[in-house]
Amino acid sequence: MNEPLSMPVAGDDTLARLADVIDSRHGGDPDKSYVARLFHKGTDAILKKVGEEATEVVMAAKDGVPERLVGEVADLWFHSLVALSHFGLRPEQVLAELRRREGLSGLEEFALRKLRQRENSEGG
Ligand SMILES: N=c1c2ncn([C@@H]3O[C@H](COP(=O)(O)OP(=O)(O)OP(=O)(O)O)[C@@H](O)[C@H]3O)c2ncn1[C@@H]1O[C@H](COP(=O)(O)O)[C@@H](O)[C@H]1O
């Protein structure tokens, strides 16, 4: 996929607003809300959905249909937000972690991690 399907909006708070709605569903009526139903079913059901949606992302990517891939990633992000909320976490924390990693090459990070592991094992 070379071109974005639509342009991002500066200061987009979609994830935070969606997380607010998801948070509000704790203890809600499982017959009236899909999110409340997932919370009602519990940890295993929530994590199962995350796994299923991740698999669907892979299958959509293999199909090579951009709109399908976007839809499946949206499903994965949504169910990941449900999982975060289930564990008392917020998307802002994930965004902060991604910001922290900005500018740090994955290869540099990997090398630093290996160095630290070696120092720890040699030190004790
Ligand atoms: N973004 C979503 C969203 N994305 C996907 N889904 C639902 O996730 C479900 C699972 O998707 P699947 O592809 O696995 O379909 P399925 O076969 O019906 O599901 P299973 O039977 O396999 O569990 C579907 O019923 C989708 O409608 C979502 N449901 C809710 N939201 C957001 O969450 C808000 C709160 O939703 P409620 O709690 O239902 O009010 C909504 O206003 C939306 O903004």
From TrEMBL:
UniProt cross-references to InterPro entries, sorted A to Z: HisE, PRib-ATP_PPHydrolase-like
The reaction(s) catalysed by this protein are: 1-(5-phospho-beta-D-ribosyl)-ATP + H2O = 1-(5-phospho-beta-D-ribosyl)-5'-AMP + diphosphate + H(+)
UniProt cross-references to SUPFAM superfamilies, sorted A to Z:
all-alpha NTP pyrophosphatases
Pathway involvement of the protein, from the record: Amino-acid biosynthesis; L-histidine biosynthesis; L-histidine from 5-phospho-alpha-D-ribose 1-diphosphate: step 2/9
Q: Name one Pfam family in it.
A: PRA-PH
- Give the record's keywords alphabetically: Amino-acid biosynthesis, ATP-binding, Cytoplasm, Histidine biosynthesis, Hydrolase, Nucleotide-binding
Whether Amino-acid biosynthesis counts among this entry's keywords is: yes
* Source species, domain of life: Bacteria
* Gene Ontology cellular-component terms listed: cytoplasm
Keyword Protease in annotation: no
**Might you give the EC number(s) for this enzyme?**
3.6.1.31
- Subcellular location, record wording: Cytoplasm
Q: Name one GO biological process term.
A: L-histidine biosynthetic process
Q: Which Gene Ontology molecular-function terms are recorded?
A: ATP binding; phosphoribosyl-ATP diphosphatase activity
Q: Which family does it belong to?
A: Belongs to the PRA-PH family.
Name the PANTHER family on file. Answer: HISTIDINE BIOSYNTHESIS BIFUNCTIONAL PROTEIN (PTHR42945), HISTIDINE BIOSYNTHESIS BIFUNCTIONAL PROTEIN HISIE (PTHR42945:SF9)
* Descriptive protein name: Phosphoribosyl-ATP pyrophosphatase
Q: Specify the taxonomic lineage.
A: Bacteria, Pseudomonadati, Pseudomonadota, Betaproteobacteria, Burkholderiales
